[in-house]
Amino acid sequence: MAVRPWGFESLLSHQIDRIRFADREIATVAEVIQPETLRVEVELEELDGTRRELAVRVPPEPAERVRERYVRRFASQAKLKGFRKGKAPAQLVEQKYGDEIGQEVLKDLLREGYQSALAQEELEPVAPPEISDVRWLPDGSLEFTATLDVEPEITLDRVTGFRVEETVREVSEEDVDRVLERLRTDRADWRPVDRPAREGDRVVFDSVPLDDEGEPMESERVENHQVELGSGSLLPDFEEGLEGLEPGERTDLEVGFPEDHPNEELRGRTRTFRVEVDAVKERELPGLDAAFAGEVGEFDSVEELRSHVRGNLEEEIAQQSRREVNEAIIDQIIEANRIEVPETMVDRYLANMMSDRRGPMEGRVPPEKSDEVREVLRPGAERAIRRHYILKHVAESEGLEVEEEELEAALAERIDTEEMSVNDARRRLERSGDLDDLRFHLKMEKVFDWLRERSEIEPVPAENR
Questions:
Q1: Backbone angles phi, psi at 288, to 5 degrees
Q2: 95-120: per-residue pLDDT in tens?
Q3: CA-CA distance, 65 to 45, in Å (whole number)?
């Protein structure tokens, strides 16, 4: 029996691969492809750059097998009048569920046909394809076109011999003082006071929004909320309204919401909140003495604590300078070489960047500003992808890999060996998937070491820049 052409023309696009974008790596992970599952006829056309077009034909026989598979699946669950569940004839099942079966068949054939075409042509896509021209032929075969981007072929003419300036910064006594003050602030006690609240105080209060008739909306009441005035954790009108209030005082605050507020219903609106101050507390810093030093890190004296803080600051500065040199080298490599970036890869990077709730924008880009934000972020996205390919190319061309002994040594540096063995730490990281991240991090360190050794790095005092 030939496969019947179903009468709908929706063009389907499927998530064939997953791309993980991060500052440390941009990697394409394709689904497992089993080329023997479905044999297809393929014509490959190379468009421009990384763009490829696949004209795919799924022959009648495999298409029919997929259709029969779904008929059996539907038949096993079908409840038709006069038949027990799963006992209805296939012909009746097709009559009742023809459209649903057809949609499932089409989805499977597009997905499996596309995967088989990739395997036959040995292509590695960097993003899901654009599926078009989907059509059933009279003989029961299925034809469609898949347009996709593949990883660019990277040829770097120059990756060494660059001249880079390295900023040399000194740690001052004021820098150490600022860290110590922050440590004292973090360990401060909060003492209740009987006076108006001012910047730097902690205010404990209850609040409830009022409706248009001035009645409290009890379902949105918040009690015992705490805020440090001046921290910026509340809307500006709210914080300013709390300043000057005393314990036990009640008042109504007019609060304006910004146009980009996460709650669309509140954007650009003004609401009235009834607030009652429960307490005003001021910060009481601990003394900078031996007792404090011991509490921070079991140091015997303030001088020992200062020495430790200075060492940490110097290490941070060294790492910052190292990162700046690394990225300056990358910028010069990008400038010295033409590295083509697939547009679909940039688009996916931007989409992930804007939707990631753990990212800098916390996935809170208003739809109306989406295009504007994408354009602002696009140069950085293109650089990140070029950076990925540069590092990948150097690692592969120079054979830079992380040996097991290096991985074990890195693990030993990062754990307390009195509480956990290196083997236990390794097993824990393997289970969480973080071991591959550590291996990648060490590999990138090797790549940057290799690049720095082959560039001229000139120290420049910070005050001369």
A1: -90, 85
A2: 676 788 778 888 889 999 999 999 99
A3: 29
Task: Report which secondary-structure segment, H or E, holds 53.
Answer: strand 51-58
Whether the pLDDT of residue 73 is over 60: the answer is yes
pLDDT in the model for residue 301: 96
C-alpha distances (whole Å) from 339 to each of 155, 353, 383, 391 are 8, 22, 10, 12
What are the residues facing 193 on neighbouring strands? 280
Q: Radius of gyration (Cα) for the chain, nearest Å? A: 32
Are residues 193 and 282 in contact, defined by beta-carbon separation less than 8 angstroms?
Answer: yes
Give the type of residue at 100: E
Q: What number of other Cβ atoms are within 10 A of residue 118's Cβ?
A: 26
Report residue 213 as tokens. Answer: 């008739």
Supply the pTM of this predicted model.
0.70
Q: What sections of 156-274 are H helices per DSSP?
A: 173-186, 236-242
- The amino acid occupying position 411 is L
Alpha-carbon span 14 to 144, nearest angstrom: 13
CB 202 within 8 A of CB 218: no
Locate 190 and state its tokens: 């909060």
For residues 250 and 230, the answer to whether their CB atoms sit within 8 Å is no
What token pair was written down for 118?
């990739």
The answer to whether 289 and 304 are in contact (CB under 8 A) is no
Question: For residues 411 and 432, what is the distance between their CA atoms, to the nearest angstrom?
Answer: 15
Is residue 331 exposed (0-12), middle (13-18) or buried (19+ Cβ within 10 Å)?
A: middle
The pLDDT tens digits for 258-304 are 988 888 889 999 999 999 999 999 999 999 999 999 999 889 999 99
Structure letter (DSSP) for residue 6: P
